[in-house]
UniProtKB/TrEMBL annotation, chain A:
Source organism of the structure: Citrus sinensis (Sweet orange)
Top-rank taxon, per record: Eukaryota
Protein name: Translation initiation factor eif-2b subunit beta
Swiss-Prot/TrEMBL keywords: Initiation factor, Protein biosynthesis
UniProtKB/TrEMBL annotation, chain B:
Protein name: Nagb/rpia/coa transferase-like superfamily protein
Domain of life: Eukaryota
Species of origin: Citrus sinensis (Sweet orange)
Taxonomy of the source species: Eukaryota, Viridiplantae, Streptophyta, Embryophyta, Tracheophyta
Amino acid sequence: MNTDDSSWWPMGDGVLCNAASQTYPSCNTFTHALSFFNKIEGSQATARQTAELLRSVISQQRVPYTNQAGALIDAVKAIGEQLIAANPVELAVGNIVRRVLHIIREEDLSLTTAAIGGLNLSAVSDDENDDDRDGDSTLSAAAVAAAARSTLRPPSLQTLLEDTPVSAAVPQTSSSGGDSEGKSKFSFTAADKSSRSRKLKHDVIEAVNELIQDIVTCHEQIAEQAVEHIHQNEVILTLGSSRTVLEFLFAAKEKKRSFRVFVAEGAPRYQGHLLAKELVARGLQTTLITDSAVFAMISRVNMVIVGAHAVMANGGVIAPVGMNLVALAAQKHAVPFVVLAGSHKLCPLYPHNPEVLLNELRSPSELLDFGEFSDCMDFGSGSGSPLLHVVNPAFDYVPPKLVSLFITDAGGHNPSYMYRLIADYYSADDLVVQRRATAGN
Amino acid sequence: MQFDDQGRVNKSKKRAVFNQPEAKNRVELFRHLPQYEHGSQLTDLESKFLELDSMHPAVYKVGVQYLAGDVTGGNARCIAMLRAFQEVINDYSTPPGKTLVRDLTAKISSYVSFLIECRPLSMSMGNAIRFQKSRIAKLPLTLSETEAKAALCNDIDRFINEKIILADKVIVRHAATKVRDGDVLLTYGSSCVVEMILLYAHELGKQFRVVVVDSRPKHEGQALLRRLLAKGLSCTYTHINAVSYIMHEVTRVFLGASSVLSNGTTYSRVGTACVAMVAHAFRVPVLICCEAYKFHERVQLDSICSNELGDSNDIARVPGRPDVNSMDNRTNEKNLQFLNLMYDATPSEYVSMIITDYGMIPPTSVPVIVREYRREYLLI
């Protein structure tokens, strides 16, 4: 590991950390909070905290001369692995880790393009023969093209062979040409390299700041689209409570649309009660119904608007339990089912067996009082297998064919389009967040 | 009766036996149905106990039981009402100058309107009352009073025996053939017929497991769960939102019904339609178990035109959740309404089969039975 002082500078916190042990105290507390205490509730808060944590990791990370991007990516992957393992059901954590990795790759690519373009211009002033110059220009063009291809396309044999354009390109240009020119060029490239690495970290941190800003303001951007979808005298149905839905409805109310809302209470958390309270405080006509009455009432509803816990790559939705019921009823009565989700909820994974793998089973005490059936639920009595099992899942999977529209902070989309957004936000290399044992990339 | 018609409402209030304050925050969509404040009804009725000379104590007792919710379920309510009518008939004596037929019919009608005030009639009760009145009307004029009374009581006994008790036995025999070893049976709420089926199949020695789905506000499934566990059945308990999660394990769904209407729609406890819809989406057969006396020639397309509204406080208050219950003092806020539906209508395409005492029929055969076999009421 390069301990060159030119690659280390204070950034914000000014806390030095031991590169060998790679301990980040803030990371450990965050991981603990995620896995054990569930203190951080809600995808938005989780996403924001993850992004801030990764920002501090990046700023504290010491990067070597060559392959800074690789070092940053390794560091983020190491932390990201721990964060994802702490709470696999909270998909927003994995999403943000992958977003940051994508940011690092993108910033690196743009810097490479700019740097190689800059090198080309400065090389003209040197006294070199034409062959070298031609070699430089063709190499830089090829390097740029290769870098561009490798970051945006899935790995293939071609991209694997051109895998390290960054680290390969710079030493080659420095080795071509005579000694004096080489030395001057070497010193130039050295200065250029350090300024480039400084710039990389700086750019990455700026981009992560933008990401945090996007996460924080996603509600406003979604709420701006409310007026396009809600007309006068509309009847809207929702289940449980979602802050995005709340802001959405408020925005429509601000624009003087009058509409009524049916809120299903969303057992066993009963968050629908809280949502109804907030809606009534703002002057909206609200009716609170039980979840069992959803089918009875949906024939008189114009639109169903709900929030989501996560949106998967196929357009499927992981939502609070009971949502599949509402989606099926809406399909039967041809009522549009609209899902509001910030872009930090978009997950690049495909849901395989989501009812089991992406679900969380909560305590039976939310359904039954502890004292009543405790003898039947006891594993110790009789043959060792209890007579009574209580099932209390926290999430539900809604398949993409039941969803009419996704409204994200990037606009409204069909479920069949969601996989394209993934190409914008994530890199194909990052789908499995695992630190690779080999050095290189 | 139309509760959105103010004239009729005022007229019925004058005839009413006890006071029922109307709910302040009525849901607009249900203006045609009665919505009352449930808090003071029971105490009001109990305080009137000594004032009601015209009310037979047996009918009064049944009314109080309905209002308090002690007697629930179509069969139980129907049997309670008919037994009360038996006592009424036994204690009845024709006043001078009146005929038995007309006077008794008028008395029964007044008792029925009292019971409606306590709780709106279920379809099973409506059919039983129609049977009763037709029996009274068909009494031969040559009978003496004691003979007429004995004949009427006999008719009631036969009705209860044939249409309810024996019918249940036949249904249980039929349905038990549909339970195989290794089955996972799902049921919703608490239906007495489905409970009998499960216990009978268990006695026959079939190996199966039961999933009990429950919902707010009544949590009727918990009582069923207790009784099943006492008999040693292995059960899973969940709430209605988790039905999509559990449905992939389920092989059959058994549901009870308050009534089956002539267009094949099943009218039963709210939430049944949701369970049937999810079962249909997962291709699990849905079997409705319903005695034939509950069939009705009415037709209904949705759950709104005709329904029953319960206590809105049951929705506002969640027992054991103080963080949510800060809503409680807001029941009278202008913009907020609570809707406590009791019934809903399940479309016929979600139902695979209806098991009745006439056999196992598809939902499309219900109007046939209503038309062909109802005549036997009149031919007895």
